[in-house]
Amino acid sequence: MGVPALFRWLSKKYPKIVQSVEEEEPGHMPGPDGHMVDIPIDISRPNPNGEEYDCLYLDMNGIVHPCTHPEGKPPPETEEDMMVEVFKYTDRVINMIRPRKFLMLAIDGVAPRAKMNQQRSRRFRSAQDAKILHEQREQELEERKKKGLAGEEEAIQKSWDSNVITPGTPFMDLLASSLRYWIAHKLNTDPGWKNLCVVLSDASVPGEGEHKIMDYIRRKRSDPNHDPNMRHVIYGLDADLIMLSLATHEPHFKVLREDVFAQDAKHRGCHRCGQEGHIAAHCRGEARKEDAKPLQKKPFIFLDVPTLREYLNVELQTPGIPFAFDLERAIDDWVFLIFFVGNDFLPHLPSLEIREGAIDTLLKIWKRELPNMSGYVTNNGKVELANAQFILDGLAQAEDDIFRKRKEVEDRQEANKRRHTSNYSEAQHGDTTYVGHAKVIPPRPVAPPTIGPSKSVPGSRNKGPIMLDGDNADVVKNRAQIRMANISAAEQLKMELSQGQGIKRTSSPVEKESKRIKADPEESAPVKEEDVLGDDSIKAEEDDDDEEVPPETKMLERKINADGTVEYQDTVKLWEPGYRERYYRQKFGVELSDTKFRREVVQAYVEGLCWVLAYYYQGCPSWKWYYPYHYAPFAADFTDMHTMQITFEKGEPFRPFEQLMGVLPAASKNNLPKPFQWLMTDPESEILDFYPAEFLVDMNGKKMAWQGVALLPFIDEKRLLDALHKRYDQLTDEEVRRNSFGRNVLFVSDDADLYPTLSQLYAKRSDKRAVYIDTARIPQMAGSLAADTTCVPGATYYSPLHSLPDMQDIPHDRSISAHYEFPEQRVPHRSVLLQGLTKTGFGVVDVARAADEAVVVEMGGMTKVYCMAAMQDLRVRVLMARVPMEEGPMEAVLMGLLMVVVPMALVRMVPVRTEAVLMVEVLTALAHMEVAHMEAGPMEAVLMEVVLMEVVLMEVVLMEVVLMEVVLMAPALMALVLMEAAPTVRALMLDQRTVQRMARTRLAMERSRIADMELRVAVNV
C-alpha cells in the first residue's frame, strides 16, 4: 500500500512487534562429481522458531520482482532462469514457515480501476528511467571505445523490461505454468508437502494477490466449521498486509517479510550487482569475481499481529466514551485513519505526512472526539460519515499550524545543510569539470493546467517526465535541452566513479550537443543515479510495495542534489495566507470560490475513503470506480459529509489486454498483441493521447525526486474499450486464451486426506459436477472443486522449462489438481473474534516478548508448560502459549499467574491505581493458587516457582514494598507444595541483561532456601 515509511514507523513506535525469524540452513555433501551439493531441508521437522503454523499465504509479486531484477547481484540471463530464482526464493520462505495444512500462492491479476491509475504512473516512469539508463550506458560505451577499451560492448545491454510483470503478458503466462510444474514437483518429492493443500491463484484470476488471499480468509472464516485457532503467516512486501491482517480479526497472524533495513548501513556499492567500486549507472552486469566476497542473504522478520493488537489495546483506550469499548471496532477505526496518510487509491491530504507524525495527530483527534460521537467511525467496512466528520473537522483546525511548522522545520534543515555542505554542483578545478551542465527551463509563476477527469493532451508526443511549471508546449519546445541534460547526467555519473579526479572537458558530449543547440547560460544541476538518491532513513522506507518503484525519474528542469532532493520554487506556499486559493488555482485550474467544483472533489474523495474501507473488509465494491483527480482537497473542504449519498456499481474487471493497454507505456508495447501495439504510437490511433512519452511531474511540495506526481492523462474507459473491441477478431487463439479469465487451482499429493475427493472428479462415471469439500472432515479447506482439463492423474507432467537440465518432466505424477472456487461468503465479514478462540493474553497490555521457554517436570499430570514473559520499560505482560490445559485446578493457577504479574504493570501505567489496590489483587491471586495447589500435584509447584521468578524479575521501582511482600510470601506457599513432590525445573531468564543481573542473585538465594526446605522435608519423612 502507498503508505510511505509505515513499516518503519510501526516498528519504531511499537518495537516488539518485530521478531527475528530463525532459518535453518541446508546441509552440504559431496556430489557424484566431487562438488558440494545442498542437502534439502526437511520441513516435516519442528519449526525452528518454536511455533507451528497452519497456513502460509504468499503474495507472489513480492517474490517475482526481487527475483527478476534483484539488488546486489546481476539479474538472471533468461526468463527461464528467472523462474528458477522464483522457485528458490519461494522454497526458502516455505522452509522458514513450514505450513502444516494450507499453502496459497497468489499472483496479482487484473486490478480494480482505482489501482490502475497508480500502476500506470509507475510503469510510465519505470519505462522512462530504463530508457535514460540505457542511453547513459551507451554513452559510456562510446567513451570506452575512444579510450581503446575493447571487449566490453557485450556487457552493456538493454535492461530487462520489468513492466512485463503485468497480467496478460507472455512472461506471466510462463510464470503460471512454471509454478504449476514446481508445485507438482514438490508434491512428488518433498515429504514436508505430503499433507498440504496448495492453491495457486495466478495472474489470470482477477484481483490483487493480497486481496485474493484476504478474500479467501474472510470466506473461510464465515464457514461454521472454521477453526479460529489456526495460525496464519502471510508473506509480502506491501505495507498494507499489516492493515489487511488486522482487518481479518484473526488474532493468530504474522506478516513475514525481508528485513530490508538490515544491510542499509553496510552496503554502499552498486545495488544492481552488489559489487564495490561503481554505482548502478555504470554497472555492466559483469559476473562477480571468484575471490569476491560472497553475497549475504537478507534476513527475514515477523511482524507479530497479536503483539500489535496488544499495543493498540493500550493506545486506543479512551475514557469517557458513551458506549462500551470494543477493541475490534477500535482497531478498524485505526486502520481507517491510516488510509488518510496514504494508500494505493487516493492521494493523501496535503496536511498529512507520516514523518511529521500524521498518524499520531489523527489518533489524538480520534481519542479527543470519540466521546462526542454516537459510536465508532467504521462499522464492519462501512464508514459512518457523521462520525468521520469529527475527524476531518479536528484536522481542519490544525491544518494551518501543520503547514507553518512544516515550513519551519524545512527552513531549519536547509540552514543546517548550508552550514555543513558546499554546493559542489558548481565546483570546478582548473581545466577539469566535476559536473555536467545543461539547459534549465526557468520556473513559471503559475503551475501547469491540471489534466483533470477524462481529459487528455491529444497529439503530444513527448519523450520523458518533465519537472517544471510550464505546459506541454514548453516541453516540446525544449526537447533539445532535455537531450542535453540526459547526456550531462551520464558525464556527471562518470565523474563519481573517478572519485574526484574529474573528466576532461575536451570533446565532451555536452559540448558537442551545445554546438548544435544554442544553450541558455543558466546552468542545471547534476542528475545522480538511483543508488545515490538520499539517506536510508528516507528512501529505504519506500520499499513497502512489491512493484518496482522507479528510484528516480529524471526531473531535468529541476536541480537534483546528491541526496536526491529537488530544488525548485514552491509557488503554492502552504505556509502563507491565501494558500487555498493558490492550491486550487494551480492544481485544479479553478478558483476557490468555485464551491460546486470543490464539492465534487470532496464527494469523490469521500467515495474513495468508503471504497477503500469496503475493499479491505468486504471485497471490491466496484471494479470501475476511481478517483478522477491527481490531488486531494484540504481537510477544511470536508463539510456536511452526513448528507452525501455513497453508492457503487459493482461492474466487471478489465480483461488482461485491456489493463495492459491502460497501464503500459508505448515503450513496453512489445508485451501486447501486434493488432494493439500500433494504437500506442501511430498518429492515426484514436487513443494516441493516452500514451505520452513526455509528461509533467509536479513535485507538489515534496523534496525527493521520486515523490513527484506524474500528471498523466486518465484513461477514458469507453474510448479504450471501443478501440480494442474493433480488433479482437485479429487475435490468435493463444492471445485469446491469455486475454481470458482463469480459475484458482488446488493441488494435493496422493497422501493427502483430500486426494480421494479430487479423484472423484476424474472417475469414468463422474458426472463432472462440482464437488463441495467436507469441512467437517477437512476443516482447513472449504469451497467447491471442478475437474481441471489439464490434469491427467498418474500421467507424466511435462515441464515448461525443458531448456534447464534440472527441470525435467515428472513421470507418473503422484499429485492431482482441480479448479477451485472459494467458499461462499455466508455472512458479511464482521469485526469480531470468533467463538471458540483460545485466548493467549490478547489485549492485556503492551509487550516485550521473551523466548518461549519449556518447563519440564518429572512428576505430575502436565508434562510441559510453555511460558512467555516479557518486560519493556514500565509495561509488562505475560502470555501463556500452547498450554495443554487439564481439567481441575490448573486453570486457576494459570489465571493466578496472570493476576500477579499484570497488575504490577497496570499500576505503573494507570495513576488512579494504588499500592493498596495492587496488594489486594496480588493477595487474591495467591489465594487462588493456594486453593489450587492444595487440590493437585507437583505441577503447581512448578508454576509457583514461575510466579516467584517473574515477580523477582519485575523491575518495579515504585513498588518495592509490595514486591518484597510477594517475594516473601511465594516461597512459603511453595513449601506446602513441596511436601507433595520435588520437581526438576528448567527455566531461563528474560533476554534483558540488567534484569538478568538483578535476578540471578535473588534467584540463587531463593533456590538455596527452597533446597534447604526440601532437605528438611526429606529428613523429616
Give a quick account of the main beta sheet: strands, pairing sense, barrel closure. 11 strands, mixed
Distance between the termini: 69 Å
What is the total tally of β strands?
26
Helix/strand structural class: alpha+beta
Q: How much is the average pLDDT?
A: 75
Q: Which fold name corresponds to the CATH topology of the largest domain?
A: Rossmann fold
CATH architecture of the largest domain: 3-Layer(aba) Sandwich
The helix tally amounts to 27
Biased composition (Polar residues): 498-509
GO molecular function, one term: RNA binding
Biased composition (Acidic residues): 541-550
Protein name: 5'-3' exoribonuclease
Can you characterise this structure?
- With 1021 residues, the protein is α+β, with helices and mostly antiparallel strands.
- The protein folds into four domains: 51-106 and 169-202 and 208-273 and 298-304 and 743-833, Rossmann fold (3-Layer(aba) Sandwich), CATH 3.40.50; 118-160 and 436-524 and 526-560 and 653-739, no CATH class; 316-408 and 575-643, no CATH class; 853-1020, no CATH class.
- It has 27 helices and 26 strands.
- An eleven-stranded mixed sheet has the order 1-9-8-7-4-5-6-20-23-22-21, with helices on both faces.
- Helix 25 (939-953) packs antiparallel against helix 26 (960-978).
